[in-house]
Hints:
With 578 residues, the protein is α/β, with parallel strands linked by helices. The chain is 26% helix and 27% strand. The strands form 6 sheets. Strands 1, 2, 3, 4, 5, 14, 15, 16 and 17 form a 9-stranded mixed beta sheet that branches. Strands 19-18-23-22-25-24-26-27 form an 8-stranded mixed beta sheet, sandwiched between helices. The model has no long low-confidence stretch (mean pLDDT 95).
Amino acid sequence: MTKEKAIxxxxxxxxxxxxxxxxxNAKVVNVYTHEIQEGDLFVDNGLIVGIGGNRKAKKEIDxxxxxxxxxxIDGHCHIESSHLTPTAFSDIVVPYGTTSVIADPHExxxxxxxxxxxxxxxxxxxxxxxxxxxxxxxxxxxxxEHAGCILGAKxxxxxxxxxxxxxxxxxxxxxxxxxxxxxxxxxxxxxxxKKKNIDGHAPNVSSSDLDGYIGVGITxxxxxxxxxxxxxxxxxxxxxxxxxxxxxxxxxxxxxxIDDKNYRWALFCxxxxxxxxxxxxxxxxxxxxxxxxxxxxxxxxxxMATINAAECYGLKxxxxxxxxxxxxxxxxxxxxxxxxxxVFIDGMLVAENGSILKPSVPVKAEGIEGRMNVKDFSAExxxxxxxxxxxxxxxxxxxxxxxxxxxxxxKRDENGYWVHESSKDILKLxxxxxxxxxxxxxxxxIRGYGMKHGAVATxxxxxxxxxxxxxxxxxxxxxxxxxxxxxxxGITMVxxxxxxxxxxxxxxxxxxxxSALEVSKTLERMHETAYKELGxxxxxxxxxxxCFMALPVIPEYKLTDIGLFDVVKFDxxxxxxx
Length: 578
């Protein structure tokens, strides 16, 4: 706060001048006292002045008994997973009561490096939403795949001083942390020097390894799968995020571990959430409502979505409705089913009845468009020759990004090449390197996707975002890859050589300048096509699930452009078991 702002606030608070706005007849949620206060809320110059008092205002809004809730803060998200640019993302999430997000742009930075970081920061300045970033800590996530860029400590120093950069993004390379890898510790040291946060990513890490991981300053984790893991982390002073994304949904499992003693160390996040999910179910409010439906006290849930997140990331100017805080809040008719009726950011009405009032102005993504550098690709590279019929297989777990290390007996032709059997739910999965023209194509087998015939390909493949393609035959898979390259990135579906549908993502192969509504309609249509035309199992999201099958930091089997990777052993394994 400046001296000038302080003088103006004092004049408004003491009644020496009229406030900009008063919201009358509101039920204000107080996250400090866990109480509901009835009264009139006064706002001036984008700040909260106070509740009640002998004050006047230039403008009045009648809340008619609605609840006034602090703006929700998403503790961890990837804007790129919405397929939208930051400005379009802002326009779709703000109407649901999300007024601030802490975003990790490691998806686009894996493709375009610091050029992408500069674009994301520039674009955020045009957004209605408050967008903060964590500088990506793992680009690439591991040395076991090829990304578009390598970002180390030196690259991090270029942006770590920016006020919109709150620290270092999710440290997925937990073996590197625990084993004191020098390059990993150099990155942590960048955050140490600036006294900034370090986000975590620690699935299945426990005991002494968890002590070391937390002990070196990693403050959050959004990868808990059970209530026991949540309690284990909170007991060590770590913030835990209850995640409700499109593919990863942990709120109902983790809320069982929340109680009146530990809730102050819990946040909500969306991580990866697609537009059609947001349109159908909401944004952060969806996870909050699920927790409330499961029995969590509504005010406790609101605290987790507001003040907890603000304190975790040192955002002292928001997270509560109190004097001097930013006037970021929304009105909702109920606390048992939170749905924003009117949303205010910086004291201005910005969204009403589910719609943004003034769309954000987009920023041109100069220099980070396309990025499809594929060399010497052919259908021949998709062939899978096996030494035996007994093989390792990636087993999909519906609703999760983790997989099982499975095995199966499959069919081979007279030359030893894998043959698809319609009676078995086993498909071919391939990853095609697209950043450096290396010509790498790795092939494996996957079970649980359910597709009957055809192929799906996408340039969204966390975290290095090479091309990933799944199918029952090489011809359709090859056709899908070629079509994707011609699009400049995105998602495509092919059956019997015919392109069924496309979703073009021209910004680094991850985002599009299209509006949220256009993207939502496209993805909704493509989901229907995947289920009806290709026969993909409705137990899985056909695109989001596929995106995570190349992520070699989440157990158990994943496929990179180098080969089949066992995350538990942290090494490549042969697909042949005999």
